[in-house]
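Before any further analysis, we paired sequence with structure tokens, yielding the entry below:
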Amino acid sequence: MNRLGGATSPYLLQHADNPVDWWPWCDEAFAEARRRDVPVLISVGYSACHWCHVMAHESFENEGVGRLLNEGFVSIKVDREERPDVDAVYMTATQAMTGQGGWPMTVFATPDGTPFYCGTYFPRANFVRLLQSVSTAWQDQREAVLRQGAAVVEAIGGAQAVGGPTAPLTADLLDAAATQLADEYDETSGGFGRAPKFPPHLNLLFLLRHYQRTGSARSLEIVRHTCEAMARGGIHDQLAGGFARYSVDAYWTVPHFEKMLYDNALLLRVYTQLWRLTGDALALRVARDIARFLADELHRPGQGFASALDADTEGVEGLTYVWTPAQLIEVLGSEDGRWAADLFAVTETGTFEHGRSVLKLARDVDDADPAVRERWQDVVRRLLAARDTRPQPARDDKVVAAWNGLAVTALAEFVRLVETSGRIGTEGEANLLEGVTIVADGAMRDTAEYLARVHMVDGRLRRASRDGRVGEPAGVLEDYGCVAEAFCAMHQVTGEGRWLELAGQLLDSALTHFAAPGGAFYDTADDAEQLVARPADPTDNATPSGRSAIAAALVAYSALTGQTRYREAAEAALSTVAPIVGRHPRFTGYAATAGEALLSGPYEIAVVTADPAGDPLVAAAYRHAPPGAVIVAGQPDQPGVPLLADRPLLDGRPAAYVCRGFVCQRPVDTVEDLVAQLG
């Protein structure tokens, strides 16, 4: 009997009609394996994963494979996004056993969950042979299987250990990290490493803050070049905005077409901050389009942000997105069609499969004549309208707490910077930016309310929800860190004390239930389900690690409240990552970003004013804020807002109060004096 029909996970629901007697992750599944004395197959993936779909079609939808699994195994299907703790433990086992990892992840375990054989994708013929071999080994070589499992558990226990060496996260370490990133930088195409190439958003955030602190032209140039290369490439949806998960080549040309919430949230922060620091027109345009993509494509009113858009459409990767020259002419007419083919590098040969091309921006149009920009945007609108009539990729409507937190923080930064910057560009561009900002602001506020209302249960966080119904899996450390940081951002945007109170609840829970020796943190709570190992990964990857996320939230909360114990907890957490920062900076980007905030102060900026949206002092604070600064604006002594307490107007005039590391400067009432204090 397949038991996935009642799941909240779209990934599990994709397998609800398989001929496999799937179980969700639960104690009952392991009890059934003990009763039958059979091994467990743990199959881990996620809804937007292309090769997960391939393995499902080849194997899990096959009646013969289903019979083998049902006769010899208890089969458990896991959504890695809903259960990152389960994924982390078994991914560590897979990497320890095979030297690599990925999804779909295929793990064979004993009835107590101990892994003894691990892999990823298997073609059907190989998978059938593997099932037969594992079943035979379980029956005839049980002792060897158990020894292998014990060795794997010992290996993953060591990999997840806490209590290692610590060191202060100093300026020297952060400078060394920036230097190493520069050494590993792809001078030709931007980014780091070779194909497949992933958007290095966390490293770019760090380098932007490093540039602010040090004035390093090299750090800024790495960010500018990488951001421009990605924005012009096929990894960036040139019509609807948003970025795909990664590029299969080293040049950002052909993407793996899935679009993830977390990538786009983090890239929104990068492009927003790059625009803030440089005034770059391309950066603002891309930030605007990411914000529009989040609000239009992933936000569901009253239900938060969906997790992803699928890589495939009707089983074909890229079907929605690719074009031929003839298709451009069919939609746009001969003249505009040829112009668009040149602009988007669409050729008869094609850059993708079967003579089709992924759109990339081959010409510099952001700084072109207004008439050229208008023509470009008109072409974009017409092509998007035509593309919308094509079959569309599926959307994973599961709401993940951590990723929604990342989106709220990113939108808060974008909205406040745009709102305080006045009208920008031509009339059409200014109107579009204003419209996007309005819907982005609404999506941000709606999602923050949803997280507080649905995902917070008895002062604790739940990991995922769908259709307004929260799931059972408990929140992990990254959920607490990302959501707490988002609530700190909401406090700054709204001036409402309740957001700061909610952030404090989450951080206190994290300090109580996730703390580990020496200032470290576990990724799961002390009262969460006990797995074969308790994960505690200090490294950043596609998203901030739990440890980096909680450190960033602790830094912001400490600055907003003036409570030093939260800063001390952040410093201790970052000290456990510091030994890795200088050696492996590509895997510590968000930890380094939080470290730059601590080195900066961070600055605490309070503007007392009756006009938080329009006061020039507020605009100057946002435009010139040092790395990690917190900014609050509003009436003096507003309840629940510590930074506005005991901060009066200056002779009836608005005033700015700037503190750094709990040491304050004199209040000022001119933009010039405020900018000087922030310099």
Notes: The chain has a mean pLDDT of 94. The longest strand covers residues 40-45. The first helix runs from residue 10 to 13. DSSP finds 24 helices and 21 strands in the chain.
